[in-house]
Design a protein that fits this description.
heterodimer, A: alpha/beta, Nitrile Hydratase, Chain A, 2 domains, two-stranded parallel sheet, 4 strands, globular, B: 119 residues, mainly alpha, Cyclin A, domain 1, two-stranded antiparallel ribbon, nitrile hydratase activity (chain A), lyase (chain A), transition metal ion binding (chain A), Nitrile_hydratase_asu (chain A), nitrile hydratase (chain A)
Chain lengths: 207, 119
């Protein structure tokens, strides 16, 4: 078990030791031919470029510009994913059923979950800490309008709020409303407007 | 069935709030370069079959548990990736990928190189 290096315990020293420990491990593994200089980049690249909220953003932006695609996305989210240029494992190959709930002027949707592992993270990215907080879940179920206003989502009393419990069987997420003033935007520009929070229903999309 | 090992890893790590890595805006959050390196090495070694991912996970959970048992819950010294790194060293040594001694020697060499020379 590696020692703790007395005298190297705090602040900058601790940082230098941590960096040296990882570097030492990496250089030994490279020396032994177990990994190469690219191994770690390849693993990280998977998280940075293949899975994340940009996938959900692309789906929503496509749905905003293409009514047929929107219908497909609402009817069969996994089939819609298959039409995109997504990496393998994104379109339900794991038996994960994704469903998307559409926000309209009359209905606002928000998702909650009981296990973080049920979060639709291939499309939304990794869930924020507060998402799994039992207080958050309980409060969204009990007083969604108050919780949403705390997030800065002010809804008219006439808007119905629907709360979806995302689970291992069905991973729910939200199709936000396209904001006004975006009529001339390209699909890529629209995708850039989307945040994970908007696709969870705790934020609205703004320009 | 998971088609990508990384997908399986990320899903397994989301199991509990303690064990899940820091993240921001849907992405993994790395504050220091060595965190990325430690994260990537842990996954790469398991992907190559040097140890089961579950062994790493359990070691990480134990390491976090040990830290929590010996520190105040509000202790500002809490550092997720320090625990991750400690767990990685433990499984790398336990699985025989590297020897305890050679790791110690390598760390000392790196630290000595960086230390200011004493006349």
């Amino acid at each position: 078990m590696p020692s703790n290096y007395p005298g190297f315990k705090h602040g900058a020293d601790r940082e230098a030791v941590s960096a040296a420990r990882v570097k030492a491990l990496e250089s030994l593994l490279i020396e032994k031919g177990i990994i190469t200089g690219n191994t770690v980049d390849s693993v990280l690249g998977h998280f940075e470029t293949k899975m994340g909220p940009f996938n959900g953003a692309k789906l929503v932006a496509r749905a905003w510009v293409d009514p047929d695609f929107k219908q497909l996305l609402l009817a069969d989210c996994n089939a819609a994913c298959e039409q995109m240029d997504f990496p393998a494992g994104m379109s339900g190959a794991e038996g994960e059923h994704m469903r998307i709930a559409e926000n309209t002027p009359e209905v606002h949707n928000v998702i909650v979950c009981t296990l973080c592992s049920c979060y639709p993270w291939p499309t939304l990215g990794l869930p924020p800490y507060w998402f799994k907080d039992p207080t958050f879940r309980a409060r969204v179920a009990r007083e969604p309008r108050v919780v949403l206003s705390e997030f800065g989502v002010e809804l008219d009393d006439s808007v119905e709020i629907r709360v979806w419990d995302t689970s291992a069987q069905i991973r729910w997420w939200v199709l936000p409303m396209r904001p006004a003033g975006t009529e001339n935007m390209s699909e890529a520009e629209l995708a850039a407007l989307l945040t994970p929070e908007a696709m969870m229903g705790v934020a609205q999309v703004s320009v | 069935m998971f088609t990508k090992f990384e997908h399986f890893v990320a899903t397994s790590l989301m199991g509990s709030p303690e064990e899940a890595p820091p993240r921001r805006n849907g992405h993994l959050q790395f504050d220091r370069d060595w965190e990325k390196l430690a994260f990537g090495i842990a996954i790469a070694l398991s992907k190559q079959g040097h140890y089961e991912w579950e062994d790493f996970r359990q070691t990480l959970i134990e390491t976090i548990g040990e830290w929590e048992a010996t520190h105040d819950i509000q202790d500002p010294e809490w550092d997720y990736y320090q625990c991750w790194l400690a767990a990685l060293e433990k499984v790398a040594i336990a699985s025989g990928v590297i020897e305890d001694d050679e790791l110690e020697t390598q760390i000392k060499q790196l630290l000595d190189c960086k230390a200011p020379s004493i006349p």
